[in-house]
Amino acid sequence: MASANQMGEGTLPSVSELFSLQGKTAICTGGTGGLGLSMAIALAEAGADIVSIQMKDDPRASLLEEGVQTCGRKLSVFEADVADSAGLRACFARIWASGIVPDILLNCAGINRRSKVEDFTDEDIDAVFQINLKASFVAAQEVGRKLLELKRPGKIINIASIISFIANINIAAYACTKGGVLQMTKAMSNEWASKGINVNCICPGYIKTAMTKVYTDDPEYTRYIIGRTPAERWGLPEDFRGAIIFLASKASDFVCGTSIVVDGGLIAK
User: Where does the chain cross the membrane (predicted)?
Assistant: First the structure.
């Protein structure tokens, strides 16, 4: 009897090869953040070199550097404020000029502002929209353009949220942007899937990071989250290692325009 990897046309890759990122280059925004750091290091563990777009004097830069170096991979750092669209595009121009060829984009930069709808200021609305939605669009657009120019396949992984589906209170601006990221993912996939560019997103639930500290420090809110979550715990950044490797690797070559919800079952309850 023929083995699984001998059937069909040609030889199928082994399971370990399916999930390997050896020889790949992953560009990351937000790669020093709570979720981004865990996912960027996971990409490095799977074999990818990391290109980090980060703020000048980022206080968590050393964590990413140490993590990538521990994996024996190369880290290249390019400084930019992703909220500045012109500056972000100029940063990508510097990346391409350096000779870097992209395979993967982890689009993870994000912020939140909390307020009643009627009290949101223009400053807060603009900040959330600029980083969560426009910067995500620009980064995906720049990487997509380069992949099309080079006629290369690639993986673009956006970070949305369960708030893309179940908007909470006091985070209306955030909810708008994360709903937008979900639709952006579908729209880009519709145009690029036939070119071998997979565009997908991950939708985190309630995860213990600096962004959610206001909640995780609140015993009453923690009881509420645990009560709503079938897994009966807060999520952790390391819970995203499997999802990011799947979407970045050959294992997801026929996965297009979809979202993977990582929330301990919260929105299914």
Answer: none
Whether 174 is catalytic? yes
Q: Tell me which residue range forms the domain holding 176.
A: 20-205+237-262
- Out of 174, 206, 215, 224, pick the active-site residue: 174
Residue 199's domain is classified under what CATH number?
3.40.50.720
- Distance (Å, rounded) from C-alpha 226 to C-alpha 186? 31
Please check whether residue 8 lies inside any domain of the structure.
Answer: no
| HEC assignment per residue over 170-207 | CEHHHHHHHHHHHHHHHHHHHHHHHHCEEEEEEEECCE
Specify if 173 maps to a domain: yes
Q: Quick one: tokens of 124? A: 């807060």
The radius of gyration of the chain from alpha carbons, rounded to an integer in Å, stands at 19
Task: List pLDDT tens digits, range 97-109.
Answer: 999 999 999 999 9
Distances (CA, A) of 49 to 24, 77, 233: 6, 11, 33
- What confidence score (pLDDT) does residue 4 get? 44
Residues near 57 by Cβ (< 8 Å), separated by ≥ 6? none
| In contact, 94 and 45? CB cutoff 8 Å | no
Q: In the chain, how many domains are there?
A: 1
216/205 Cα distance (integer angstroms): 13
45-81 pLDDT, tens per residue?
999 999 999 999 999 999 999 999 999 999 999 999 9
In a domain, 221, yes or no: no
Closest by CA to 82, choosing from 121, 30, 27, is 30
Q: Is residue 88 part of a domain?
A: yes
